[in-house]
Amino acid sequence: MAPPPPLSSAPAQALDPGAWAADQVAAGLERIAPLAAARTTAVRPQLQRVLDAFAAERVGVHHFSSVSGYGHGDLGREVLDRVVARVLGAEAAAVRLQFVSGTHAIAAALFGVLRPGDRLLALTGRPYDTLEEVIGLRGHGQGSLAEFGIHYDELPLTAAGLVDEAGLEQALAHPTRMVLIQRSCGYSWRPSLTVATIGRLIAQVKALQPDCVCFVDNCYGELVEAQEPTAVGADLIAGSLIKNLGGTIAPTGGYVAGRAALVEQACCRLTAPGIGGEGGTSFDLNRLLFQGLFLAPQMVAEALIGAELVAAVFAGLGFAVHPQPGEPRSDVIQAVRLGTPERLKTVCRAFQAASPVGSYLDPVPAPMPGYASELVMAGGTFIDGSTSEFSADGPLREPFVLYVQGGTHHQHLAIALERALVTLASTALLPA
Ligand SMILES: Cc1ncc(COP(=O)(O)O)c(C=O)c1O
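Above: the input record for the complex with pyridoxal-5'-phosphate. Below: its predicted structure, written as tokens.
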């Protein structure tokens, strides 16, 4: 029988998980330091753009309050719409607390613009999970696009997870009212689309069908790059305020932006034909929306630094990560392929325990409205469900990928990561 190995050959994580985890995170922070500095510097032009928009629209304290009831003539809301349009490089925008989520804003855009008999073509493969019921790919009897006679097709992504640009012409051989481009990877293992790529795709679509509306699901992408899809030809975009643009303090809401006539059509779906964007109080919450927008460039930069740290630490341990450390980013999402449900649950549990709110809660996989798979979520955030604050989640399905996003301070992610590594090491869940 072979003699037992000497104690010193035991892996460091088994000998002292706490010291080992602290070392891993410290090394990760050191590795990302130059990138973190670059991200911090990049806040300045984004913030300047926001400040220029505030100044051009002469934002003042009188815009913080709103009107009750119908919400007609809500000066703060009207000015906020114009400020956001300027920041996004769009003709118009509608920022509304009445949008309950990004999915709702996207649905308003789709239902607002599409009419029975129209064709909708997704250029980025299968859209994000919650849009399946909106389109009618899952569920029935809820009034999906399919039930209203809208034909849906999709151009599958290539094996590398890229848009199949070679197949674009054939996919657009039929008259198409709208193409749907999803900027962020969502819950899929693929690169997020850069704004330059989105601009190139739109130019190709317009060359084939000039009247086709190019719609972009902009969730998680806002302020990550110097320009938004609306500045490179997108006709309409939509997203959530409890993600990037809300700067972690918008209490709820979403936005649509783009060509004024299309924004109005989306608003007609949100409210009613004839009312459109003219109704809907801001509940005296305009200050939070303005202030959130002012904070957003900094919050997005912190989230990006945190994402980089997650990538560096998990890649260093041999896990597959997307994007790779140092790769260009077009959204704030960092995917880590954990490979087993135990690891997914363990990391979510550790992240929850390191959260400011509900640290005592044990995240358990559960069904969630709009999703086919059960989800496990760590979201100890001040705004319920906010993914601009540090949060992580993943569908409980192969290959058990954790999606990490948000974070107001990347040092918070350092604390949470250390906790997760200690637990993974002490429960022997690290790869051999
Ligand atoms: C790409 C993408 N689109 C849309 C959504 C839906 O956003 P919400 O959760 O605000 O409805 C998500 C959510 O994660 C997403 O990742």
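Notes for the reader.
Residues 101-103, 128, 130, 182, 184, 186, 217, 219-220, 240 surround pyridoxal-5'-phosphate (CB under 6 Å).
Residues 57-284 form a domain with the Aspartate Aminotransferase; domain 2 fold (CATH 3.40.640.10).
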